[in-house]
């Protein structure tokens, strides 16, 4: 796992990991708030839960941006070298996809957390359907 982290580029993978931590923090804070039994405004709760989904989408966009920058750097290196083997090109494409796959995984996690918390909020009548 550490190998993938450093192959994907520590800068983008670090940012994506921070985004994932923010998502978990938001999810835990909202879950505690929902399970506390306090009364709350449904519109505010719906907005607070929407932050989880939005942050996950931000992670996906950062991952795609990391891939695009990696592809640009790989193509610049290929241009300077002139000729490159197909195996080297495939390896570069594989490495460039690591950050976008991590961003997509973060988006899926955020969406599942949002879905579960939204269901909990509807069950607790904190959010109107």
TrEMBL record:
Lineage: Bacteria, Pseudomonadati, Bacteroidota, Cytophagia, Cytophagales
Record keywords: Cell membrane, Membrane, Protein transport, Transmembrane, Transmembrane helix, Transport
Domain (MotA/TolQ/ExbB proton channel) ranges: 45-113
Protein name stated in the entry: MotA/TolQ/ExbB proton channel family protein
Record flagged with keyword Transmembrane helix: yes
Topology relative to the membrane: Multi-pass membrane protein
GO cellular component terms listed in the entry, alphabetical order: plasma membrane
Source superkingdom: Bacteria
Organism expressing this protein natively: Fulvivirga marina
């Amino acid at each position: 796992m550490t190998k993938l982290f450093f192959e994907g580029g520590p800068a983008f993978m670090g940012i994506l990991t921070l985004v994932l931590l923010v998502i978990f923090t938001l999810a835990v804070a909202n879950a505690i708030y929902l399970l506390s039994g306090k009364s709350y405004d449904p519109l505010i709760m719906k907005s607070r839960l929407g932050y989880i989904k939005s942050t996950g989408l931000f992670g996906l966009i950062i991952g795609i941006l990391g891939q695009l920058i990696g592809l640009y750097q790989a193509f610049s290196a290929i241009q300077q070298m002139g000729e490159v083997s197909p195996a080297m090109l495939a390896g570069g494409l594989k490495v460039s996809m690591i950050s976008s796959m991590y961003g997509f995984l973060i988006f899926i996690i955020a969406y599942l957390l949002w879905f579960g918390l939204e269901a909990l909020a509807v069950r607790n009548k904190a959010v109107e359907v």
